[in-house]
Amino acid sequence: MSSLRVGVDVGGTFTDHILLDEKSGVILSYKTPSTPYDPSKSVMNGLRYFKDKGRGNGLNGLWMVAHGTTVNTNAILERSGAKVGLITTTGFRDVLEIGRQTRPHFYKWDVDRPDPLIPRYLRLEVTERINSVGEIITPLLEDEVWKCVDIFKREEVQSVAVCLINSYTNPTHENRIKSILQDGLPDVYLAISSELSPEFREFERSSTTAVVGYIGPVFDKYVNELQSDLQKEIDPIPALYIMQSSGGMASAKVEIDKPHLTIESGPAAGVLATADLGGRLGLLNMISFDMGGTTAKASLISDGKPATTNMLELGKEATGYYGVRITGLPVRAPSIDLVECSAGGGSIARVDAAGLLKVGPQSAGAFPGPAAYNMGGTEPTVTDANVVLGRISPDFFLGGELDLDPELSRHAIEEKICSKLGISLEAAAQGILDIVNANMVRILRVVSVSRGYDPGDFTLVAHGGAGPLHAGDLAQELGLTQVIIPPNPGLFSAMGLILSNIQTNSTVTRFMKATQNNLGFIREALSREEDRCRKTLNKEGISITDQIIEKHLDMRYVKQNFELEVPIKGSIDTANHLEEIVATFHSIHERNYGHSDSNAVVEIVNVKARGFGIIPKPRSADLPFGTGDLTGALVGKRSVFFKQSNGWLECPHYDRVRLFQGDEIQGPAMICEFDSSVVVLPGQKATVGSLGELLIRAGKEINNE
Predict the structure, then answer these.
(1) Residue of 301, 305, 331 lying closest to 316 (CA atoms)
(2) 3-state DSSP helix/strand/coil % of the chain, to nearest 5
(3) If DSSP states are collapsed to H, E and C, what string results for 216-281?
(4) In this structure, is residue 60 part of a structural domain?
């Protein structure tokens, strides 16, 4: 009987695997270097480990591989996607170039915007026009579409994006163009805006369609090759599911047509795992902080639910605004609200031409990696700084499977930093950490302060291979009262993959006032979106008893430019129900913008439904209580440099696997495990919880004791 699930999260440096036996509750883990040249290789390497070494009976009974992938993100960031052509309405070929004339900083005119993914000579126009209510004003001239086909053939495009003005109200012309392209270019990937993003706002819809056209062939090839590898290695072949940016999974056969939904695939899983852990611990307000080898990501969880957004923005600095000031490539996709920065263990430190110490955005990646890896890397990284300061033990890194050479770390920092700045090795290494910590504090403030929340009201949950190394410093800087380090923090996102439910989303633009006169139209629109979600869940094989539908409305004050998402709790059958929804909108507006107007007219712009197919969750037994004697967990002592004491301190070094519930560790101390190391700063205290989590009391609370 099928009872095994595997979660695989591909990161920039390592690929993490979690195997769950649903019958016994046993969980196995494996971590292997990523293979950027072909990400599927590291995926299969981990599966082969479970098959050949990790279990006595191989992978018999494996029914699901839940996958978090960076394939689409990398294709955009590296500009390695397909050659794309665009067909649009006459007069609109330059929408991708013009974009929005707004800026993250009002008085900064030299905004660096990314080049369009589709060059102008491949952006073609056809005669047609549909107005904003879906009426055909000018019929489609099909001869012009066939001329586009001839041009695309000559240019050997791999993909065609189709985005006509107002097609979200009436897709007739886009459907006809799609039919012509299927006849004239049968082997070319097609991205149709009315199928991908049937919402208003021409630039965002055009950008989303262009992104899908750009990454679609890459993602299609990757998924098909991975499924082929699974079929060769595992019999019967398990179902492949891909994590979406929204925090839910969908089968590869569904995702393959909507690759833009997976752009923040891996990071979303870590937020889901954080929310699940918080639910089990009785915590409702948390900040998920994930620091890996290449980037650091932050997301806020309020009242037990991750913050969400309707639009991703790729290739831009985190500004804290809700996508209002566009400087990157906007993508319309339901997503967990993540803010990230180029701050990971592999981030490279350097001295710039002005003599200033900088860290990132360049990364040493998996190969050659930090200098300490002894795989040819010579540039100093954040990992090297942690090694030099004693925060990472060479004897316990990846359970001792990867030998670190501290001398190589020292040499890299001395040669590239100390010699240029004329400072000591400790000052240089600490300077690297100070800079990377400042970058990460910034994104933590963006997801909290910039969203109208006090970070002091939240618990920081730090994960990723490097997150626990920096969590204590970040908590002190932000004034947080406590930090939680989950079990296996370096594999936490992979754990989130096997915790995630199946999810589908459906959205349609409908402009109407939020008044009693429109109550029937609102109910009808919500019902249609719910039906679409249930249809997809039925395709996924989810029984009706395991289906949950959530409904939302995007609302704004009349004449506002941007809307806020408002959840619908319960039914919307009466005028009183609608008044409650409008009151909720006023409250959300007040929290986000600092003001509201209960007398102003509110309008609805988008009607949404989210469907969830519930997957059984693994539940582990509570950790046994300890005696308070830490002798059995003590593996030695080592000198660690602490900024707080401006010097080296002798620290006890504990093996986390040997700790029990109730054990307390007073800082300064180091706690090591297979996939990460935890730093407990002087004045902080770590307590082992019932699930094996480490609760580090930090910031103002510990100072008041």
Answers:
(1) 331
(2) 35, 30, 35
(3) HHHHHHHHHHHHHHHHHHCCCCCEEEEECCCCCEEEHHHHCCCHHHHCCHHHHHHHHHHHHHHHHH
(4) yes
pLDDT, residue 615, reads 87
Going by C-alpha positions, the residue among 145, 144, 93, 100 that lies closest to residue 119 is 93
Mean pLDDT of the chain: 88
SS3 295: coil
Give the C-alpha separation, 616 to 549, whole Å: 17
Same domain? For 111 and 179 the reply is: yes
CA torsion 322-447-317-219 (nearest 10°) is -80
Among candidate residues 211, 228, 262, the one where a domain is terminated: 262
| CA–CA dist 310, 593 (Å, integer) | 18
In-domain check, residue 336: no
Query: What CATH number corresponds to the domain at position 156?
Result: 3.40.50
CA-to-CA distance for 471 and 678, rounded, in angstroms? 8
Residue 407: phi, psi to the nearest 5?
Answer: -65, -35
To which residue do tokens 């595992």 refer? Answer: 234
Question: Which of 144-153, 463-472, 644-653 reaches the highest mean pLDDT?
Answer: 144-153
Q: Give the pLDDT score at 105.
A: 65
Number of domains in the chain: 4
Residue type, 316: K
Do 110 and 185 sit in the same domain of this protein?
Answer: yes
Shared domain for 549 and 597, answered yes or no, is yes
Torsion of CA 695, 489, 363, 8, to 10 degrees: -160
Average pLDDT on 412-425 reads: 93
Residue 220, both tokens: 């299609």
Let me know: does 208 contact 330? Beta carbons within 8 Å. Answer: yes
Q: Give the alpha-carbon dihedral of 588, 591, 593, 599, to 10 degrees.
A: 50
Helical axes 265-281 vs 492-499, angle rounded to 10°: 80
- 27-69: pLDDT as tens digits: 888 888 888 888 889 999 999 988 887 565 678 888 889 999 8
For residues 661-678, average pLDDT: 91
Which SS3 state, helix, strand or coil, does residue 45 take? Answer: helix
For residues 424 and 418, the answer to whether their CB atoms sit within 8 Å is yes
Burial class (CB in 10 A: 0-12, 13-18, 19+), 422: exposed
Give the range among 288-292, 393-397, 567-571 with minimum mean pLDDT: 393-397
CATH number, domain containing residue 592: 3.30.1490
Task: Examine the domain organization and report whether 601 and 661 are in the same domain.
Answer: no
Q: How far apart are CA 155 and CA 226, in angstroms?
A: 30
Q: Is 693 a domain residue?
A: yes
- pLDDT value of position 321: 41
- Specify whether 531 is located in the same domain as 607: yes
Q: What percent of the chain has pLDDT over 90?
A: 57
Quick one: 104 and 239 in the same domain?
no
Q: Give the amino acid at 519.
A: L
Does residue 664 form part of some domain? yes
The SS3 assignment for 35 reads coil
**E strands present in 475-574:** 482-485, 502-513, 547-557, 564-568
For residue 189 the two structure tokens come to 């990937």
CATH assignment at residue 48: 3.30.420.40
Helix axes 575-593, 519-539, angle to 10 degrees: 80
In terms of domains, do 87 and 144 share one?
Answer: yes
- Please check whether residues 104 and 201 belong to one and the same domain: yes
Domain hosting 543: range is 502-613
Please give the Cα distance from 521 to 193 (Å, whole number): 25
CA 625/CA 182 separation, integer angstroms: 65
* Token duo for residue 606: 């988008």
Q: Which amino acid is at 649?
A: L
In this structure, are strands 634-642 and 602-613 parallel, antiparallel, or unpaired?
Answer: unpaired
| Domain end (from 219, 248, 271) | 219
